[in-house]
Design goal:
This protein is an all-alpha fold. It folds into two domains: about 190 residues, Growth Hormone, Chain: A (Up-down Bundle), CATH 1.20.1250; about 190 residues, Growth Hormone, Chain: A. It is built from 18 helices and no strands. α9 runs antiparallel to α10. About 50% of the residues are buried. Its main location: membrane. It comes from Streptomyces violaceochromogenes. This is MFS transporter. It is a multi-pass membrane protein.
Length: about 425
């Protein structure tokens, strides 16, 4: 790890010292993709396909459970919570398995489980069978995602060391692929629901059959440079890694803020518009912003900001988004004018996300132990998920207290702003955060 750190820091220091050099010509997404290794292209396309298959089904699950299956509202919420726990909460388990057994077998196992889970869900007709299918679907992602994310991060470091540019550009492209899948998936699912929910599930399963076939054919048995760790003790060392846990806490505040798209924002839209119909347009606005501006934003940040400053700027932009709504709430605006603060919040949150997410994922390889990148990438999601779980409960309680309209939004603005102080500091002599 020491050799890796020295190479990364020397590369970054050199890049910082050359800040006055002429800018590189502006590049297209296609040109950047052509520069990547075949493995990176496979992993990024995998993320696109993964989200298409996932979001073709999951956005419509709650309505299916309530209408077709006849579940009570509390049970629908419980099932959705189980899916989140079996996915986000178990990322750390998937990451540990990646470090121990390698990327390929864990990705293939995740694909097989996802195919089985979606097929099972399509034919499930009782509460217990639905719960079983949802648990399989969630655990499949807990295997699949840490494997793909950790290898993309490791390959991005190697790409940076080879002189192609900041690793955040690769991770930004990975985010674009995921967001594009999240945008296309619900459109595909809505078309398939014209037939029935089972058809949507089987189509989602078919997507993962294609992903499985692609990895069986193209994923190498052994990825050069990937070290498998057999001995125990990684979790104990991780829990003593204060710098990494600080990063998890800061990243968790971003995820908590992002979760307000589903908790605080619907209330604001309902107040301003009298219905939640504009929500779909605001979600589409967020997706389109990421797809079309993530790479330019990341390129701009990579030329001017280190990882610490990029996350700082992103968190402060997110805080300002909450502050915009807080400042506008006392006016009581409604209609199209009343939706402007909500749109401002979505835009600022999304731009902040575009700075925070690639920087956080790029930072993890510098803080992880040698050979345990999967564990650390999984832990980033799991620890952050616990923060979101506790924070969302607190936010719901705060919104129900009947406080002055601006107060909950001001409190939410303070959380990412205060998280800036939690971010790990730069190493002395480093050209960027490490």
């Amino acid at each position: 790890m020491t050799d890796l750190m020295s190479r990364v820091l020397s590369r970054r220091t050199a890049r910082t010292s050359d800040a006055a050099a002429p800018e590189r010509p502006r590049e297209s997404t296609w040109r950047l993709c052509r520069e990547l290794s075949p493995l990176l292209r496979l992993l990024i396309l995998t993320q696109l396909a993964f989200n298409i298959g996932f979001f073709a089904v999951l956005p419509f699950l709650a309505e299916h459970l309530g209408t077709a299956i006849g579940m009570a509202g509390w049970l629908v919420g419980f099932v959705l919570g189980l899916r989140t726990f079996s996915q986000q909460g178990l990322f750390v388990v998937g990451g540990w398995l990646v470090d121990r057994y390698g990327v390929r077998p864990v990705v293939l196992a995740g694909c097989v489980l996802r195919v089985a889970g979606f097929a099972w869900l399509g034919f499930a007709e009782s509460s217990w069978t639905v719960i079983g299918a949802v648990l399989v679907i969630g655990f499949a992602a807990a295997l699949f995602s840490p494997a793909v994310e950790s290898e993309v991060a490791r390959q991005a470091v190697a790409w940076e060391e080879d002189g192609h540019g900041p690793r955040t550009r690769v991770l930004a492209l990975f985010s674009v692929a995921g967001q594009a899948g999240a945008f296309v998936g619900p459109l595909l699912g809505a078309l398939l629901l014209a037939v029935d929910f089972r058809t949507a599930c089987l189509a989602g399963a078919a997507v993962f059959v294609l992903v499985l076939a692609g990895h069986l054919w193209l994923m190498p048995q052994h990825i050069p440079g990937r070290v498998r760790v057999r001995e125990r003790g990684g979790a104990r060392t991780l829990l003593r890694n204060r710098r990494f846990l600080a990063l998890c806490c800061a990243y968790g505040t971003y995820l908590l803020a992002y979760n307000q798209l589903y908790l605080a924002l619907p209330d604001e839209v309902q107040r301003a518009a009298g219905s939640q119909a504009p929500l779909s347009w605001l979600f589409a606005l967020s997706s389109v912003l990421v797809v079309f501006t993530q790479l330019p934003v990341t390129r701009w940040a990579g030329d001017r900001l280190d990882l610490h400053r990029s996350m700082t700027a992103g968190l402060l932009l997110i805080a300002s988004g909450f502050a915009v709504v807080a400042a506008a709430r006392p006016t009581g605006w409604t209609g199209a004018t009343g939706l402007l603060p909500a749109a401002g919040f979505v835009i600022l949150l999304t731009v902040g996300q575009m700075l925070v997410v690639p920087a956080a994922r790029a930072w993890v390889p510098d803080l992880a132990e040698e050979g345990r990148l999967g564990l650390y990438m999984g832990a980033l999601s799991s620890v952050s998920g616990l923060i979101v779980l506790a924070g969302s409960a607190a936010t719901g309680f705060l919104l129900d207290l009947g406080l002055p309209a601006a107060v909950p939004w001001l409190v939410l603005a303070a959380v990412p702003a205060l998280a800036v102080a939690v971010l790990p500091r730069r190493e002395k002599g480093a050209g960027t955060a490490a």
